[in-house]
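Same chain as my last thread, 404 residues:
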Amino acid sequence: MFKINDNYLKLPGSYLFSTIAKKVSAYSQANPDKEIIRLGIGDVTLPLSPVVIDTLHGAVDEMGKAETFRGYAPDLGYDFLRNAIADYDYKRLGADISADEIFVSDGAKSDSGNIGDIFSVDNKIAVCDPVYPVYVDTNAMAGRTGEYLVDQQKWSNVIYMPCTAETNFAPELPKETPDIIYLCFPNNPTGSTITKDELQRWVDYANKVGAVIIYDAAYEAYISEENVPHTIYECEGARTCAIELRSFSKNAGFTGVRLGFTVIPKDLKSGDVSLHSLWARRHGTKFNGAPYIIQRAGAAIYTEEGQKQTKQQIAYYMKNAKTILEGLKSAGYTVSGGVNAPYIWLKTPDKMTSWEFFDYLLENANVVGTPGSGFGPSGEGYFRLTAFGSYENTVRALERIKAL
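reply #2:
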């Protein structure tokens, strides 16, 4: 008889955002007259920029002609996109990353789960707490996380690095030595960042203990402060200890068309084994690349007009973030984030749990957010609101919350 991967059976309940969707659906069915404003899931709402749409149309036309038709994309991605990424996202910042160290994919979420394929199940992971749940969930599916401790809402074989108000929602170096360290800055869900000097400490630490850092930079385009690094490869020694994940979803609105990339330098090795070579083999065998049409659209982001339109979209969302941040502060809430990321991290009032505040907002203000406990044990008592709605809905949601 066939057997299943019983690690999946250890996962607690359903995925965070699935639970939210079910709760909202049930409320909507019971209250069809209520208009719900969604500031929960981190999905963009603005349409793709004109330069992207024009490029998509042009690429579709190419696919209809024999002389310009394209079939399977190259394993690593098309040169025109990887060269643009290398020049704009890395060389422009003084980061030593070449085009052949960039692997184009269908998104950072896919890569954050798939990257575990090249690591032994015996590796011990360290994660910020709270943080994007996909890191822990996919390692749990692979069998690295031990047993789920229901009373503590954590896994027995995971090193949790608390990110609290006392640490400015940034992690401290772990006391127990990990093999794989997940860092996400600007952070999802807290919106926190660290300086280049602080990130350098992590790079130095990883090189010292022989750990690898998986660095999620999906929100780097939202950084507004000069001392916050846009890539881990701005730090000396990062080429020998760090993998970086990037996405086109949040900066260019590609959540519906899917595009991202992962950087693995050729200097990153385990003993004599190159992780670059392992990922290249995995990428080629279990292909999760993106079609020619989508990669052409991605390359359009790096044109002068593409950058102009992308920055306009980011500015729109950050205006929303500022509106929420300042509005909640004036209403007496304790909030952070919203400066270098489109997320606002809110301390729940009156000692409410995260899910109690979720229900309270849904039922009394018809506003949907994300319970902080869904991002890790240290997220309990906190709540995430996103800036990815329309400005009009953002203002209306804030008015409803302030009226409670």
